[in-house]
Specification:
single chain, Chitinase A, domain 3, 6-stranded antiparallel β-sheet, two-stranded antiparallel ribbon
Length: 220
């Protein structure tokens, strides 16, 4: 059946709109696909760069630790056999003893410095320390005792020692990890430490995480 003229026009318009819509949808899909490929490539490039930057950062950290270990290991290793069993009932207040007096600046609550240390529990077990396979790990840096970040026994017990010195600390539980304990250390446990204070080494800046990785949740 032949269509009337106005019907033919309507069909033509509908057909034209359908074609335009199909072509438009194709271009939208193509554009989205192109953008996705670009975003994915940008993500991969950012991830590769960040991984390389992390490797470079770790290499610098390891090199610094190795250099410092050569400087300080011989001195600090003299105290690696110091950890031994002790009677927890005898540690009722903070006690300090200078095993080696340093020749550097005296530490106060605002001093920036770094430490090598060994910490042990009443059974004589070392629960944390700086010696690993005949060398020293990276030192533990302290920007100030006043800012926290260390147990109260360190905050109080390291005041007055000199850089380059070695001090033994006997810390009652209320100035250690208290009634709750921490990471395998039972509550109400006094601790002992031997701590060597050194000049804080140069800070090695960690690479910043690219925004693309944060947005994707690749790096927490």
């Amino acid at each position: 059946m032949a269509l009337k003229k106005h019907q033919q026009i309507a069909v033509s318009i509908i057909l034209g709109l359908t074609i335009v819509g199909t072509v438009g949808s194709f271009f939208v899909m193509a554009l989205e696909s192109s953008n996705q490929r670009q975003d994915q490539q940008k993500y991969q490039d950012s991830l590769a760069k960040y991984q390389n930057d992390q490797k470079a950062y770790q290499a610098k950290v390891d090199a610094q630790a190795k250099t410092l270990s050569k400087t300080y290991f011989k001195t600090f290793a003299k105290y690696q056999d110091l950890p031994a069993k002790f009677d927890k009932a005898t540690i009722t207040k903070l006690e300090t003893s200078d095993l080696k007096v340093g020749n550097g600046a005296k530490i106060d609550k605002n001093t920036k410095f770094a430490t090598y240390y060994l910490g042990w529990t009443p059974d004589g077990k070392v629960f944390d320390g700086s010696i690993d396979n005949g060398s020293l790990k990276s030192p533990f840096s302290i920007n100030s005792l006043a800012s926290g970040g260390v147990i109260e026994g360190w905050q109080n017990g390291l005041i007055g020692m000199k850089i380059g010195g070695v001090r033994q600390l006997a810390i009652p539980s209320d100035q250690a990890y208290g009634k709750t304990g921490s990471q395998g250390i039972p509550g109400d446990t006094p601790l002992k430490f031997v701590v060597m204070a050194i000049t804080q080494p140069k800070t090695i800046e960690q690479p910043q995480i690219p925004i693309e990785l944060l947005q994707q949740g690749a790096i927490q």
